[in-house]
Amino acid sequence: MLFNQRGQIVGASALIALLSMAATPEAAAEIGFEVGPLTVGGAMRVNYIYGDYPDERGEDIGNVKLDTFRVNLGLDHGPVIGAAEYRWYDGYNFLHTGWLGYDFDENHQVQLGLNRTPFGAGPYGISQSYFFDQNYYVGLADDMDMGIKYLGTLGSTEVALAYYVAAQPNGIGSTDEAARYDRDIVPDDDGVGYEERNHFNVRLIQPVQLTDNITSDIGGSFQIGQLKNKGDADDGKDATSLAGALHAITKMGNFTLGLQYTMYDYGIKGSDLVNTGFYDYYQTIAAKGQIPSISLSYYLETPNIKSLDYMLPYAEYSAVLKSGSTNESVDEDGNLVPAQDFEDSHLITVGTAWARGGWYIYSEVAFSDGNGFIGLDEYTTVGANLDSTWQYRFNINFGYYF
What we know:
The chain contains two helices and 23 strands. It is mainly β. It has one domain: Porin. The strands form three sheets. Strands 2-3-4-5-6-7-8-10-11-12-13-16-18-21-22-23 form a 16-stranded antiparallel beta barrel. Residues 1-23 have low confidence and may be disordered.
C-alpha cells in the first residue's frame, strides 16, 4: 500500500475503494506546479442551478454563481509530508485542510492537524456525486477535524486509527460557529448547543478477490466522542456520541458499486434534534438515525473524443431513517400542539461527471424530501422534516483545477 502526498491510499486495493480517483477533483488538484518540495495548486468552481428555487435562484432560466475558490499546498520532503487548503465562498472563507505528517515507510503514515476523519468507505463515503450522500449531511462523511491519524496495514488489512481533540475551527463569515466546510455539531450564535470534543475513530478495510473480475474492499468504521454542553442546552449535560458503519466498494470491470449502512446516536438528552453548522448557516438534524446508502458508477474512457478524457455516469440513493419526535408544546393562542414523529429524509441523485485536463464538471439532477440543499423549504431537512415535500435541483458544477 502506498500513499500520495495528501495522505490518500493509492495501493491496488484502494484503487477499488477510490475508483476513478484520477477522475476526481481530489486527484485533479495534483495538477499544480512544484516549488522545491512544495506543490502549489488550486481550483475555481462555478455552479448553474435550476429547480425548486422560486425568485431567489432564477425561477425561469436558473442561476449561475461562484461556488468555490481554493488554494492548495502539498509537501513532499522525504518522509515529511503535508497538505493545506484554504477556501473562499460567497461571503465566508475558512481553512479546509492543514496537516503535517510522516511516512515511516510505504505502509505506515501519521498525520497531525486538520485532516479527514477516517469514517466510511472512502473520503466521500460511497458517493461520486457533487451533492454526496446523506452521511455528509449528518457529519459522517468528508469530515475534517483537528487531531492525529494513523494510516497503515496489518497484513492485507488497511487500518486507520485517529484521535480528534476538536472539530474544524470556524472561519470568517456572518455566523459565529457555522463558517466551515463540513457539518459539525456546534452552538448557535447565542452560544447554546454542543461542541465536539475528544472523539476516537477506528476503520478497517479488507480487500477481497471475489472472482477474476470482481474485487471488493469490505470494511467497518466506528466513532465515539464527547459533546460538550454550552449555554445550558436541553438538560444542561454533556453527551456521548456514537456512530458505526459497515461498507463495501466493489469493482466489476468498469462498474463500481458502493454500499454503506450507518447507525449514529449523538446521545443528547431533552431533545431529538441537535444544532449543526456548515456553509455559514445553522440547521438542526435528527440526533439519532440510520443511513442506508448505495451508489453505482461506470468509468468510460473517451479516446476518440479530443475534448474529453473520460466520463463517469452515476446513480445514488441514501436516506436518513430517524428515531425521534418534536416536543409537545403550546402555541401563541394557548392551544396544545401534540408531539409529531420525525419524517425520514431521502436523496436520489443521477448524473455524469466529465473530465478533460484540469476541468472536472458535474451535471446531475437530485430529488429529495429532506435535504436543505435541494430546495428552499426550511422544513424539508434532515431534522424533523415535518413537511417532507419532494423537491428537485438540476445542477452543473464547472470546476477548473490548476
